[in-house]
Amino acid sequence: MRYRLVFALLASMAFLFFSVRVHGQGTDLGTIRGTVTDSTGAVIPNATVTVTDALTNSARETKTNSQGNYEMFGLKPGTYRVLITAVGMSKKEITDIVLNGSDTVSADAVLKISAAQESVVVTMEAPAINTEDQTISQTLTNQAVLELPRDSRDVYTFLYLNPNVTQADFDGAFKFIGA
Questions:
Q1: Which residue, 168, 167, 164, is CA-closest to 177?
Q2: What angle do CA 109, 115, 117 make, to 5 degrees?
Q3: Residue 38 Cα to chain centre, angstroms
Q4: Are the CB atoms for 89 and 40 separated by under 8 Å?
Q5: Cβ atoms of 42 and 67 closer than 8 Å
Q6: Which residues constitute the domain of residue 172?
Q7: Within a domain: 19
Q8: How far is residue 107's CA from residue 110's CA, in Å, rounded to a whole number?
Q9: Per-residue confidence of the chain (179 residues) as pLDDT tens digits?
Q10: Among candidates 120, 115, 45, which has minimal Cα distance to 86?
């Protein structure tokens, strides 16, 4: 009997102690979520979703996942608009979405295929071919000569690029064929 009384007293003290420490765990931040599809019902992954607070005009952006779903959480109570864009699709704006407290509001969107299509045309003219002369020539600038890869620091080694120049009998000397 005595143990029951002590146990009851300890239990009531523990209850009072822990009940003082417990605080509300709620939040007043809401969430807007939805699914983005096309007119056939196929989901649109990687669509850009911009959620804008109508009062402050501050915007936050996210992308849809591989199932076409998006979620923007941590939104203060107020009125919002959602703008959804995707490549090759027309954009969709959903306005007057009202969040009260910790509401979760669904804002699904169906995007249509965009009527305006961009096309990029790349054209290139072929260089004129000289059919009279078979010589391939080009003038090298001083900078181009300096940037040529070489295996020595001797400038005269560039002379050997000409097929009419050969090495002479001793080092550092060269001779011209036909001269």
A1: 164
A2: 115
A3: 23
A4: no
A5: no
A6: 142-176
A7: no
A8: 10
A9: 555 555 555 555 555 445 444 444 557 788 999 999 998 999 999 999 999 998 899 999 999 999 999 999 899 999 999 999 998 888 899 999 998 888 889 999 999 888 765 666 766 666 666 677 777 677 778 888 777 776 777 767 777 777 787 777 777 677 777 75
A10: 45
Q: Which of 59, 94, 111 is the last residue of a domain?
A: 111
- Farthest CA pair distance, the chain: 129
Q: What is the mean pLDDT of the chain?
A: 78
> Which domain CATH number covers 60?
2.60.40.1120
Q: Please, what's the b/e burial string for 92-125 (b: 16 or more CB within 10 A of its CB; e: otherwise)?
A: bebeebebeeeeebebebebeeeeeeeeeeeeee
Judge if 103 and 151 occupy the same domain: no
pLDDT tens, 99-130? 888 888 999 999 988 876 566 676 666 666 66
Place of tokens 């071919």: 129
What is the reported pLDDT for 21?
47
Total structural domains within the chain: 2
On whether the pTM is more than 0.90, the answer is no
